[in-house]
Amino acid sequence: MKTDNWLQHSVVYQIYPRSFKDSDGNGVGDLQGIIDKLDYLHDGTLNSLGIDAIWISPFYPSPMADFGYDVSDYCDVDPLFGDLVTFDRLVAEAHRRGIKIIIDYVPNHTSDQHPWFIESCSSRDNPKRDWYIWWDAKPDGSLPNNWGAVLGGPAWTWDEKTGQYYLHQFLKEQPELNWRNRDVRNAMLDVLHFWLRRGVDGFRMDVIAFLLKDPELRDNLPNPAANPNLHPDDIYGRQLHVYNEDLDEMSEVIREIRKVLDQYDARIGIGEVWYELDRWVRYFGPNGDGLHMPFNFKLMQKPWSAASIRETVESLESALPTFGWPNYGLGNHDYPRLASRIGQAQARVAAMLLLTLRGTPTLYDGDELGLENGIITPDQVQDPQGILLGAERTRDVARTPMQWDRMPHAGFSRAEPWLPISDDYQRRNVEAESKDPASVMNLYRTLVWLRRQTPTLQKGSYRTLVQNSGDCYCYIRSHEGEDLLIALNFTHKPHEIDLNPLKEGNIILSTHMDHSGPISLSPLLLRTDEGLLIKL
Ligand code: NOJ
Question: How far is the CA of 441 from the centre of ligand 1 (A)?
Answer without folding.
Answer: 27
